[in-house]
Amino acid sequence: MTMRAALERAGRMWKKYLKMKFSARIFLAFLVAVPGGLIGGTGLILYWQTTAVSGAATFGSAQTLPPVYLEVRRRLLDGLPASSTETRRPFAVTVENHVDARPLSGISRASLVFEAPVEGGITRLLAFYEAESEVPEIGPVRSARPYFLDWTGELDALYAHVGGSPAALSAIKAGVVRDLDEYFWGAYFWRASSRSAPHNVYTSSDLLRRAEQKRGADQTVNLSSWQFAATSTPLVGSAAEEVVVPFSTRDYKVKWRWEPQLRAYRRFLADSPDRDALGDELRAANVAIIFVRTRVLDEVGRLALGALGAGRAIIFKDSQAEEGSWSKDSTSERLRFKNQSGEEIRFRPGATWVEVVPEGISVSYGASENFSGYGEKLQN
């Protein structure tokens, strides 16, 4: 076919397209656009159908049709565009934060992280991963605590850990979570020779997927997600370019610093940028602080921590802070955050860290110029 013939044929096809009903034109444009790729991350997919043509031949008058909007599926944990039409059960892993366990592995790839105190002023992490995540090493994996079960239960996650406190093991035996204890499922963990016990147990996303398949249960879940804003929705509150959470000693003082060019908070631990074993910095799109009641359970110093109920919360995103509240009625109910007007907080898509702080510990935050050194707020 000659170029002239091809152009004449294209012109005839174009005129037929313009004579179609509007609904038919939209559908045809959709069929053409979908194989070309979908653009996610805004809450909707937008196709602009522009028919202006330039060249030697004129096929029809230029015309711009209205946009077609399609809903984008978002991931359960972090609100980022999902690669699957199904929501698969996530994974939860207890990861220790002891000084001797650092640097940790796989935390930079977690979609949701809870940091909570355990005995002795030490904090421990509960890291959640989307089922499709690729994380070659997660750990060191440590023991369960009852409050970790409450946060795991709301997401029906497969929970990886190594043993647990008496209260946690009793609840696990009662079936409150989908359990993957290294003591009984050792094939899905390994012990690194480069680390001394008990800081040497690791797992991976691939092993966790294999464990889930071995259990034979339906891996799809229908769970409630938090609300994620497609575009930036400023919080109603104060400047929060730096946030300091002094859990106990300097080794467990946490600072979050807003980085405008990254559109994220960078995590600092013991005065230094917090990096995982691969050297990747730990960052968060959102940081939420919940204040909880605690009491000592036994002579070891294990804590009872009020993960159920309600209390004060502070939410940080986009360099702003907003005071509000948290609530969680039961193990299966999702933890919720609301502002002082009673409206649910809309998070920024991306990783969220929840800092679980005992009542009585003072958290500092403000503009960067209001801080001198590490965690010291200057007087006005």
List keywords for this structure.
15% helix, alpha+beta, six-stranded antiparallel beta sheet, 380 residues
The number of E-state strands comes to 25
* Residues in β-strands, percent: 25-35%
- The CATH architecture of the largest domain can be named as 3-Layer(bba) Sandwich
Q: Can you say what the CATH homologous superfamily of the largest domain is?
A: YerB-like
Radius of gyration: 25 Å
Quick one: CATH class of the largest domain?
Answer: Alpha Beta
Biggest beta-sheet profile = 11 strands, mixed
List the uncertain runs: 22-63, 371-380
Number of helices: 5
Q: What would the average pLDDT be, to the nearest integer? A: 82
In total, the number of domains comes to 2
Order of helices and strands: HHEEEEEHEHEEEHEEEEEEEEEEEEEEEE
Helix content: 10-25%
State the secondary-structure class.
Answer: alpha+beta
Q: What is the molecular shape? A: globular
N-to-C span? 80 Å
Describe the model:
This protein has 380 residues and is α+β, with helices and mostly antiparallel strands. It folds into 2 domains: 3-71, no CATH class; 74-380, 3-Layer(bba) Sandwich (YerB-like fold). 15% of the residues lie in helices and 29% in strands. Strand 14 and strand 15 (272-273) form a beta hairpin. The model is unreliable at 22-63 and 371-380 (pLDDT under 50).
